[in-house]
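Re: that chain you flagged

S.,

Sorry for the slow reply, it's been a week of failed gels. I finally had a moment to sit down with the sequence you sent. For the record, here it is as I used it:
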Amino acid sequence: MRPIKVVGAGFSGLTTAYHLVKAGRKVQVLEKQSRAGGLIKTVRTEHGLVETAANGILNSARFESMCRDIGVPLLPTRNDGRKRFIYRGRPRRLPLNFLDVVRLGFSLIKSSLSLRPRPFETISQWGRRVLGNATTDYLLTPALGGIYAGDSNRLSASLIFGRAELAAHLQTYRPTKAKMGGTVAPQKGMQQLIDGLQSYLENAGVEFIFNHQPKLQPTEPTIVCLSAREASEYLAGALPELDDALRQIEMLSLVTATCFFDRGAARLKGFGCLFPLNQGFRARGVLFNDCIFEERGPAHAETWILGGALDPDIVNLNDNELRETICNDRERFYGRTDEPMEIHLTRWPQTLPHYSVDLERVLKTMPAPPPNIALVGNYLGRIGLAKILERAAFVVDHFPTLA
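Prediction finished late last night. Pasting the C-alpha coordinates below so you have them in one place:
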Protein backbone atom coordinates (compact mmCIF):
# COMPACT_ATOMS: atom_id res chain seq x y z
CA MET A 1 0.00 0.00 0.00
CA ARG A 2 1.45 3.35 -1.05
CA PRO A 3 1.74 5.95 1.72
CA ILE A 4 -0.52 8.98 1.59
CA LYS A 5 1.57 12.13 1.40
CA VAL A 6 0.67 14.90 3.83
CA VAL A 7 2.33 18.12 2.69
CA GLY A 8 2.97 20.41 5.65
CA ALA A 9 3.64 19.55 9.29
CA GLY A 10 1.73 22.39 10.92
CA PHE A 11 -1.41 21.79 12.98
CA SER A 12 -3.38 20.97 9.79
CA GLY A 13 -0.86 18.39 8.63
CA LEU A 14 -0.36 16.75 12.01
CA THR A 15 -4.08 16.33 12.67
CA THR A 16 -4.66 15.05 9.14
CA ALA A 17 -1.88 12.50 9.64
CA TYR A 18 -3.43 11.54 12.99
CA HIS A 19 -6.80 10.75 11.39
CA LEU A 20 -5.14 8.83 8.56
CA VAL A 21 -3.30 6.69 11.12
CA LYS A 22 -6.57 6.06 12.96
CA ALA A 23 -8.04 4.96 9.61
CA GLY A 24 -5.24 2.42 9.20
CA ARG A 25 -3.35 4.18 6.44
CA LYS A 26 0.39 4.49 5.87
CA VAL A 27 1.47 8.13 6.00
CA GLN A 28 4.44 10.24 4.96
CA VAL A 29 4.65 13.88 6.16
CA LEU A 30 6.72 16.34 4.11
CA GLU A 31 7.80 19.65 5.63
CA LYS A 32 10.08 22.36 4.21
CA GLN A 33 11.03 23.66 7.67
CA SER A 34 13.21 21.88 10.23
CA ARG A 35 10.42 21.35 12.77
CA ALA A 36 6.75 20.48 13.06
CA GLY A 37 4.13 22.93 14.28
CA GLY A 38 4.13 25.69 11.69
CA LEU A 39 3.04 28.91 13.38
CA ILE A 40 2.55 27.19 16.74
CA LYS A 41 5.51 27.28 19.08
CA THR A 42 5.98 27.75 22.82
CA VAL A 43 9.08 29.57 24.04
CA ARG A 44 10.06 29.13 27.69
CA THR A 45 11.60 32.17 29.36
CA GLU A 46 12.58 32.90 32.95
CA HIS A 47 9.43 35.04 33.26
CA GLY A 48 6.94 32.57 31.76
CA LEU A 49 5.66 31.06 28.53
CA VAL A 50 5.53 32.82 25.17
CA GLU A 51 3.08 31.46 22.59
CA THR A 52 4.08 32.56 19.10
CA ALA A 53 0.57 31.90 17.75
CA ALA A 54 -2.56 30.45 19.40
CA ASN A 55 -2.46 30.25 23.19
CA GLY A 56 -5.29 27.72 23.34
CA ILE A 57 -8.08 26.08 21.36
CA LEU A 58 -11.85 26.08 21.65
CA ASN A 59 -12.48 22.60 22.96
CA SER A 60 -14.57 20.02 21.14
CA ALA A 61 -15.34 16.33 21.61
CA ARG A 62 -12.96 15.44 18.77
CA PHE A 63 -10.09 17.53 20.14
CA GLU A 64 -10.58 16.22 23.67
CA SER A 65 -10.58 12.64 22.39
CA MET A 66 -7.43 13.21 20.32
CA CYS A 67 -5.54 14.75 23.27
CA ARG A 68 -6.55 11.83 25.48
CA ASP A 69 -5.32 9.45 22.79
CA ILE A 70 -1.91 11.12 22.43
CA GLY A 71 -1.44 11.65 26.16
CA VAL A 72 -1.62 15.46 26.32
CA PRO A 73 -3.42 16.77 29.44
CA LEU A 74 -5.60 19.85 29.01
CA LEU A 75 -6.14 22.85 31.27
CA PRO A 76 -9.48 24.67 31.42
CA THR A 77 -9.71 28.45 31.38
CA ARG A 78 -9.33 29.86 34.89
CA ASN A 79 -12.37 31.52 36.46
CA ASP A 80 -10.69 34.93 36.19
CA GLY A 81 -9.99 34.25 32.53
CA ARG A 82 -13.65 33.87 31.62
CA LYS A 83 -14.24 37.63 31.69
CA ARG A 84 -13.85 39.35 28.33
CA PHE A 85 -13.66 43.10 27.84
CA ILE A 86 -14.16 45.66 25.08
CA TYR A 87 -12.79 49.17 25.48
CA ARG A 88 -15.21 52.08 25.39
CA GLY A 89 -13.65 54.86 27.41
CA ARG A 90 -12.52 52.09 29.76
CA PRO A 91 -12.57 48.27 29.65
CA ARG A 92 -16.19 47.09 29.84
CA ARG A 93 -17.72 43.64 29.80
CA LEU A 94 -20.78 45.13 28.08
CA PRO A 95 -19.69 48.18 26.07
CA LEU A 96 -23.29 49.40 25.54
CA ASN A 97 -25.19 52.00 27.52
CA PHE A 98 -28.87 51.79 28.48
CA LEU A 99 -30.11 53.49 25.31
CA ASP A 100 -27.91 51.24 23.17
CA VAL A 101 -29.47 48.16 24.78
CA VAL A 102 -32.98 49.52 24.19
CA ARG A 103 -32.16 50.23 20.54
CA LEU A 104 -30.68 46.74 20.22
CA GLY A 105 -33.94 45.23 21.47
CA PHE A 106 -35.98 47.19 18.94
CA SER A 107 -33.53 46.29 16.16
CA LEU A 108 -33.80 42.57 16.94
CA ILE A 109 -37.60 42.72 16.98
CA LYS A 110 -37.63 44.62 13.69
CA SER A 111 -35.20 42.26 11.96
CA SER A 112 -36.29 38.96 13.57
CA LEU A 113 -37.40 37.52 10.26
CA SER A 114 -34.16 38.34 8.43
CA LEU A 115 -31.33 37.41 10.81
CA ARG A 116 -29.64 35.14 8.29
CA PRO A 117 -26.78 36.88 6.45
CA ARG A 118 -27.36 37.60 2.79
CA PRO A 119 -24.83 36.40 0.21
CA PHE A 120 -21.82 38.72 0.10
CA GLU A 121 -23.16 40.85 2.95
CA THR A 122 -20.39 42.28 5.10
CA ILE A 123 -20.30 42.10 8.89
CA SER A 124 -20.79 45.87 9.03
CA GLN A 125 -23.83 45.72 6.73
CA TRP A 126 -25.36 42.76 8.57
CA GLY A 127 -24.71 44.31 11.99
CA ARG A 128 -26.29 47.65 11.14
CA ARG A 129 -29.26 45.91 9.52
CA VAL A 130 -29.87 43.47 12.39
CA LEU A 131 -28.27 44.92 15.55
CA GLY A 132 -28.03 48.67 15.05
CA ASN A 133 -25.10 51.05 14.88
CA ALA A 134 -23.89 51.09 18.49
CA THR A 135 -23.88 47.30 18.87
CA THR A 136 -22.06 47.01 15.55
CA ASP A 137 -19.43 49.63 16.40
CA TYR A 138 -18.75 48.71 20.02
CA LEU A 139 -19.49 45.00 20.23
CA LEU A 140 -19.69 43.15 16.91
CA THR A 141 -16.88 44.90 15.01
CA PRO A 142 -14.20 44.75 17.73
CA ALA A 143 -15.14 41.18 18.70
CA LEU A 144 -14.96 39.77 15.19
CA GLY A 145 -12.16 42.09 14.11
CA GLY A 146 -10.11 40.76 17.02
CA ILE A 147 -10.76 37.13 16.08
CA TYR A 148 -10.36 37.45 12.32
CA ALA A 149 -8.03 40.51 12.15
CA GLY A 150 -10.27 41.70 9.32
CA ASP A 151 -12.02 44.84 8.14
CA SER A 152 -15.70 44.71 9.18
CA ASN A 153 -16.56 46.61 5.99
CA ARG A 154 -15.19 43.63 4.05
CA LEU A 155 -15.59 40.62 6.37
CA SER A 156 -18.16 38.14 5.07
CA ALA A 157 -21.08 37.63 7.46
CA SER A 158 -21.97 34.35 5.72
CA LEU A 159 -18.49 32.91 6.16
CA ILE A 160 -18.10 34.02 9.76
CA PHE A 161 -21.49 32.72 10.87
CA GLY A 162 -21.04 29.47 8.92
CA ARG A 163 -23.89 30.18 6.50
CA ALA A 164 -21.98 30.44 3.23
CA GLU A 165 -22.79 27.93 0.51
CA LEU A 166 -19.32 26.69 -0.37
CA ALA A 167 -18.18 24.41 -3.16
CA ALA A 168 -19.13 20.78 -2.38
CA HIS A 169 -15.54 19.60 -2.01
CA LEU A 170 -14.94 22.10 0.84
CA GLN A 171 -17.44 20.62 3.29
CA THR A 172 -16.50 19.73 6.85
CA TYR A 173 -17.84 18.46 10.16
CA ARG A 174 -19.11 20.85 12.79
CA PRO A 175 -17.45 20.68 16.22
CA THR A 176 -19.48 18.91 18.89
CA LYS A 177 -19.55 19.81 22.57
CA ALA A 178 -16.82 18.46 24.84
CA LYS A 179 -16.99 17.56 28.53
CA MET A 180 -14.65 20.45 29.35
CA GLY A 181 -16.21 23.52 27.76
CA GLY A 182 -14.62 26.72 26.52
CA THR A 183 -11.01 27.42 25.58
CA VAL A 184 -8.44 24.89 26.75
CA ALA A 185 -4.69 24.47 26.42
CA PRO A 186 -2.08 21.79 27.05
CA GLN A 187 -0.62 21.96 30.52
CA LYS A 188 2.86 22.98 29.31
CA GLY A 189 1.80 25.19 26.42
CA MET A 190 0.81 24.63 22.80
CA GLN A 191 4.20 23.11 21.94
CA GLN A 192 3.20 20.15 24.11
CA LEU A 193 0.33 19.48 21.68
CA ILE A 194 2.68 19.58 18.69
CA ASP A 195 5.25 17.34 20.42
CA GLY A 196 2.54 14.93 21.54
CA LEU A 197 1.12 14.59 18.03
CA GLN A 198 4.53 14.15 16.44
CA SER A 199 5.58 11.52 18.99
CA TYR A 200 2.30 9.62 18.59
CA LEU A 201 2.61 9.64 14.80
CA GLU A 202 6.26 8.54 14.80
CA ASN A 203 5.42 5.67 17.15
CA ALA A 204 2.64 4.71 14.74
CA GLY A 205 5.13 4.44 11.87
CA VAL A 206 4.58 7.82 10.18
CA GLU A 207 7.64 8.98 8.26
CA PHE A 208 8.59 12.67 8.69
CA ILE A 209 10.84 14.29 6.11
CA PHE A 210 11.99 17.77 7.19
CA ASN A 211 13.96 20.44 5.32
CA HIS A 212 12.34 19.18 2.14
CA GLN A 213 10.69 21.26 -0.57
CA PRO A 214 8.12 18.81 -1.93
CA LYS A 215 6.94 18.74 -5.52
CA LEU A 216 3.48 17.58 -6.53
CA GLN A 217 3.32 14.08 -7.99
CA PRO A 218 -0.03 14.25 -9.83
CA THR A 219 -0.87 10.54 -9.50
CA GLU A 220 -0.02 10.07 -5.83
CA PRO A 221 -2.63 10.40 -3.05
CA THR A 222 -1.82 13.70 -1.41
CA ILE A 223 -3.39 15.98 1.20
CA VAL A 224 -2.13 19.54 0.95
CA CYS A 225 -1.98 21.10 4.45
CA LEU A 226 -0.38 24.44 3.63
CA SER A 227 -1.39 28.09 3.74
CA ALA A 228 -3.30 29.38 0.71
CA ARG A 229 -0.16 31.00 -0.68
CA GLU A 230 2.04 27.95 -0.16
CA ALA A 231 -0.66 25.64 -1.55
CA SER A 232 -0.83 27.81 -4.65
CA GLU A 233 2.92 27.51 -5.16
CA TYR A 234 2.80 23.75 -4.59
CA LEU A 235 -0.02 23.22 -7.13
CA ALA A 236 1.23 25.73 -9.70
CA GLY A 237 1.59 24.27 -13.18
CA ALA A 238 -0.14 20.98 -12.42
CA LEU A 239 -3.54 22.46 -11.46
CA PRO A 240 -3.62 25.98 -12.95
CA GLU A 241 -7.31 26.73 -12.27
CA LEU A 242 -7.05 25.79 -8.61
CA ASP A 243 -3.74 27.62 -8.38
CA ASP A 244 -5.41 30.75 -9.77
CA ALA A 245 -8.23 30.55 -7.20
CA LEU A 246 -5.77 30.21 -4.33
CA ARG A 247 -3.75 33.18 -5.56
CA GLN A 248 -6.86 35.36 -5.21
CA ILE A 249 -7.03 34.81 -1.44
CA GLU A 250 -5.85 37.88 0.45
CA MET A 251 -3.47 37.14 3.31
CA LEU A 252 -3.09 39.40 6.36
CA SER A 253 0.00 40.19 8.42
CA LEU A 254 0.12 40.13 12.22
CA VAL A 255 2.50 41.03 15.03
CA THR A 256 2.22 39.60 18.52
CA ALA A 257 4.14 40.99 21.47
CA THR A 258 4.26 39.05 24.73
CA CYS A 259 5.21 41.44 27.51
CA PHE A 260 6.25 40.41 31.03
CA PHE A 261 5.78 42.66 34.06
CA ASP A 262 6.38 42.22 37.76
CA ARG A 263 3.37 41.43 39.91
CA GLY A 264 3.09 45.03 41.08
CA ALA A 265 2.33 46.31 37.57
CA ALA A 266 -1.14 47.42 36.53
CA ARG A 267 -3.27 44.50 35.44
CA LEU A 268 -6.82 43.53 34.61
CA LYS A 269 -8.13 40.09 35.45
CA GLY A 270 -9.81 38.48 32.47
CA PHE A 271 -9.25 36.73 29.16
CA GLY A 272 -8.41 39.92 27.33
CA CYS A 273 -9.69 43.20 25.91
CA LEU A 274 -10.51 44.25 22.35
CA PHE A 275 -10.24 47.78 21.00
CA PRO A 276 -12.83 49.44 18.69
CA LEU A 277 -11.27 51.54 15.97
CA ASN A 278 -12.39 54.88 17.39
CA GLN A 279 -10.81 54.38 20.82
CA GLY A 280 -7.30 55.53 19.91
CA PHE A 281 -5.33 52.26 20.05
CA ARG A 282 -3.16 50.80 17.33
CA ALA A 283 -3.43 47.29 18.82
CA ARG A 284 -6.42 45.11 17.93
CA GLY A 285 -6.49 43.58 21.39
CA VAL A 286 -4.57 42.23 24.36
CA LEU A 287 -4.63 38.85 26.13
CA PHE A 288 -3.94 38.46 29.86
CA ASN A 289 -2.02 35.20 29.63
CA ASP A 290 -1.47 34.30 33.29
CA CYS A 291 -5.16 34.98 34.04
CA ILE A 292 -6.30 32.57 31.30
CA PHE A 293 -4.41 29.38 32.21
CA GLU A 294 -2.49 28.11 35.20
CA GLU A 295 1.30 27.71 35.11
CA ARG A 296 1.96 30.58 32.69
CA GLY A 297 3.96 32.75 35.14
CA PRO A 298 5.77 33.54 37.36
CA ALA A 299 5.54 37.11 35.99
CA HIS A 300 2.39 38.87 34.83
CA ALA A 301 2.17 38.28 31.06
CA GLU A 302 0.18 40.11 28.37
CA THR A 303 0.15 39.44 24.63
CA TRP A 304 -0.65 42.47 22.48
CA ILE A 305 -1.91 41.76 18.97
CA LEU A 306 -1.40 44.24 16.13
CA GLY A 307 -1.88 44.31 12.36
CA GLY A 308 -4.51 42.72 10.19
CA ALA A 309 -6.46 44.22 7.33
CA LEU A 310 -6.55 47.75 8.75
CA ASP A 311 -2.85 47.98 9.62
CA PRO A 312 -0.91 45.96 7.01
CA ASP A 313 2.33 47.90 7.45
CA ILE A 314 2.81 47.03 11.12
CA VAL A 315 5.23 44.21 10.28
CA ASN A 316 7.58 46.76 8.70
CA LEU A 317 8.22 48.58 11.99
CA ASN A 318 11.52 47.80 13.66
CA ASP A 319 11.69 46.32 17.15
CA ASN A 320 12.09 49.68 18.91
CA GLU A 321 9.14 51.17 17.03
CA LEU A 322 6.95 48.19 17.92
CA ARG A 323 7.94 48.36 21.59
CA GLU A 324 7.18 52.09 21.69
CA THR A 325 3.78 51.51 20.04
CA ILE A 326 2.86 48.80 22.53
CA CYS A 327 4.04 50.79 25.55
CA ASN A 328 2.02 53.82 24.40
CA ASP A 329 -1.12 51.70 23.98
CA ARG A 330 -0.59 50.08 27.37
CA GLU A 331 -0.10 53.42 29.11
CA ARG A 332 -3.36 54.66 27.58
CA PHE A 333 -5.12 51.45 28.61
CA TYR A 334 -4.08 51.48 32.27
CA GLY A 335 -3.47 55.20 32.78
CA ARG A 336 0.02 54.56 34.13
CA THR A 337 3.46 53.48 32.95
CA ASP A 338 5.02 50.14 33.88
CA GLU A 339 8.43 49.13 32.61
CA PRO A 340 8.35 45.64 31.02
CA MET A 341 10.93 43.12 32.13
CA GLU A 342 10.95 41.60 28.66
CA ILE A 343 9.05 41.92 25.36
CA HIS A 344 9.06 38.99 22.95
CA LEU A 345 8.06 40.01 19.40
CA THR A 346 6.75 37.68 16.69
CA ARG A 347 6.05 38.86 13.14
CA TRP A 348 3.80 36.86 10.83
CA PRO A 349 3.79 38.48 7.36
CA GLN A 350 1.04 37.34 4.99
CA THR A 351 -0.09 34.53 7.27
CA LEU A 352 -3.84 34.79 7.99
CA PRO A 353 -6.56 34.62 5.32
CA HIS A 354 -8.89 37.60 5.21
CA TYR A 355 -12.41 36.23 5.68
CA SER A 356 -13.84 38.80 3.32
CA VAL A 357 -16.65 38.73 0.78
CA ASP A 358 -13.89 38.26 -1.81
CA LEU A 359 -12.92 35.00 -0.10
CA GLU A 360 -16.60 34.01 -0.05
CA ARG A 361 -16.69 34.44 -3.85
CA VAL A 362 -13.52 32.39 -4.27
CA LEU A 363 -14.81 29.52 -2.11
CA LYS A 364 -18.16 29.37 -3.90
CA THR A 365 -16.47 28.69 -7.23
CA MET A 366 -13.16 27.07 -6.26
CA PRO A 367 -12.47 24.17 -8.67
CA ALA A 368 -12.26 20.71 -7.14
CA PRO A 369 -8.85 19.05 -7.19
CA PRO A 370 -8.47 15.55 -8.70
CA PRO A 371 -9.88 12.68 -6.57
CA ASN A 372 -6.42 11.80 -5.24
CA ILE A 373 -5.76 15.31 -3.90
CA ALA A 374 -7.48 17.15 -1.05
CA LEU A 375 -6.98 20.43 0.79
CA VAL A 376 -6.93 21.16 4.53
CA GLY A 377 -6.27 24.66 5.83
CA ASN A 378 -7.58 27.76 7.58
CA TYR A 379 -8.58 29.46 4.31
CA LEU A 380 -11.34 27.00 3.37
CA GLY A 381 -14.27 28.71 5.06
CA ARG A 382 -13.63 27.66 8.65
CA ILE A 383 -10.95 29.42 10.66
CA GLY A 384 -9.58 28.36 14.04
CA LEU A 385 -7.79 25.21 15.19
CA ALA A 386 -10.96 23.39 16.28
CA LYS A 387 -12.49 23.78 12.83
CA ILE A 388 -9.28 22.81 11.04
CA LEU A 389 -9.34 19.58 13.05
CA GLU A 390 -12.91 18.90 11.86
CA ARG A 391 -11.91 19.52 8.24
CA ALA A 392 -9.01 17.07 8.58
CA ALA A 393 -11.35 14.38 9.92
CA PHE A 394 -13.88 15.05 7.15
CA VAL A 395 -11.27 14.77 4.41
CA VAL A 396 -10.04 11.43 5.70
CA ASP A 397 -13.57 10.06 6.03
CA HIS A 398 -15.00 11.24 2.71
CA PHE A 399 -12.28 10.91 0.10
CA PRO A 400 -12.21 7.22 -0.86
CA THR A 401 -8.85 7.45 -2.63
CA LEU A 402 -7.35 8.84 0.57
CA ALA A 403 -9.10 7.06 3.42
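What I noticed first: Residues 244 and 282 are 34 Å apart (CA to CA).

Talk soon,
D.
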